[in-house]
Amino acid sequence: MESGWAREGFPGGPRGRFGAGDDGGKRKLKDRTVRNMYKRMFFHVKGRWGLMLLALACLISNSLLEFVIPQLTRYTIDDVIPGKLFGALPWVAAGVLGTAVLLGVFGYLSSIALASVGQRAIFDLRNELYRHLQSLDMAFYDRNRTGDLMSRVTSDVGMLQQLVSAGMMQIATDLFTFTAIALYMLYVDWQLTLLMLATFPLMLFTTRKFSKRFRTSFKTVQQSVAEVSNHLQDTLSGIRVIKSFANEDYESERFAERSETNMKANLRTVRLRAIYEPIIDMLNYLGMVAVLVFGAWQVMRGHLTVGAIVAFLAYLRLLQNPIRHFSRILNTIQQSAAAYERIMEVLETKPEVTEKEDAVRLPPIGGHIVFKDVGFSYRSDVPVLRDFNLEFTPGKVTALVGPSGAGKSTVAHLIARFYDPQQGTITVDGFPLKDISAKSLREQMGVVSQEIVLFNGTVRDNIMYGKPGATDEEIIAAAKAANAHSFISSFPKGYDSEIGERGVKLSGGQKQRLSIARAILKNPRLIVLDEATASLDTESEHLIQEALARLLVGRTCLVIAHRLSTIQSADRIVVLDQGTIVESGTHEELLHLNGKYRRLYDMQFPQEQAGGEPA
Ligand SMILES: Nc1ncnc2c1ncn2[C@@H]1O[C@H](COP(=O)(O)OP(=O)(O)OP(=O)(O)O)[C@@H](O)[C@H]1O
Question: pLDDT by residue (tens digit) across 14-32?
Fold first, then answer.
């Protein structure tokens, strides 16, 4: 499978293990994938053996019951009709109908049992995958596209469901049915049976030839579906940009191109099937001709009864079913194996930022953070922070300023331990970040950033995200402190208003104040403020500044800002450039230094140079 993922080089991914080797290597990979897939699915099925056994028993009973109706037909033709056994007719009818009822009941039971086992296994696998995704670090999310990850949790897991609910059992019962019927027929008339079985190698050969083509064709379909959904995800979430550039037609054309690829791929699959099925039908008829002609000859010579030929023809149909199923199951297995590989690529990815077994739970902290000789890069070839030394004083506001790309947000990411530095250490109150539990650190941290994420749910739910189980009084107090209470109260449903697509629409400033309320409710010791006031109107900015001032009081704060007006009162301002600290001090000290900060300041407030007040 040539996913972009594999090319990214997942260390634990199948490609990483086997390498992109020759065909032999690929076959090995495939076999191993299929074996592992069965092993894992059986693992998920474990504990539900009762239901599995019930399903198996029902399927085997059905295979045996399939024998009955042809036998009753033979009996009617050979014995009842010539012997004029009128009294036997109701029994024949009852036998056929009774068998049909039993077939229905066993079919129902096996479907229900298989579906509940299959659904349960898929439920477990999907939850395991989601939990694992939650545990992966930010670097993983930097590398992967959301649409792709979503399709792995939804459609790839769904694909495996087919395998568990139908494929696994079908193979077992088909084999059973095939062997049982073939043995019985050999017993009744070995010559006729051998003649009939002669068409099977041809069928197997055709199926094998076609299954390879089906596999390639399925892959193309799956890839084209992924392309369509990636395009949908990108363009529907970026609909504002598309409209603002008036690019609706352009995007519609691009979408049509992808849809066309998908349509063509589907048509190729249909064409293949349209050739394959008549060939199989032809071979089936060949078998039938053999039975009919050879059988008739046997009857004429008095070696076989008419009823026996009729029964043989019915058995022939039963015998051919497993072959038809088998080709379908081969496809299911191939599709599932591809999906399984994509799932395992995620499950086998280990986070780079890991927690030690004996990680220390951080006690309530003061917020003394020290960066010592820290070196960090997102990708090995581009250093972002170099020999970085910085100390955050507890209870004080430290501001980071500097040009875009200087590494300001990176400092915040490292404090939250979204990434680990390659060199140096970072400590909080003397505890190295690598030794403490990330949960205990993040519980004491609040982040308010420009990119505000509110989840589907009510206003209350969103504020409460900062402190699950908070009381209404606490929520309202936090909203008041964040200057959010009045606009929330103006909604018809107040705190119970739904946010999101079907709920109230919030302005940028309102969202910002909700996120501040969430942080105030959390009451963390450490606050990271990432360009929280960018791109807002003056009125909103004033309300937000007030809210932030309340949030920052008495906490250790890191403020990242482009707008120097927002950080002039910071206890310390650190100027970053290309990942190193070039200046640091208070606003006044830095202005007097006449260095980089002064230049940034003069750029933002040119009137100051002319003796005016900053805006
Ligand atoms: N997830 C990432 N993966 C790879 N490179 C990244 C990632 N995030 C940031 N970078 C790079 O690291 C450098 C520092 O980025 P950072 O976001 O820390 O800068 P910044 O000073 O906060 O910039 P801005 O003010 O524009 O937000 C930039 O060159 C950026 O391209």
Answer: 333 222 233 334 444 455 6
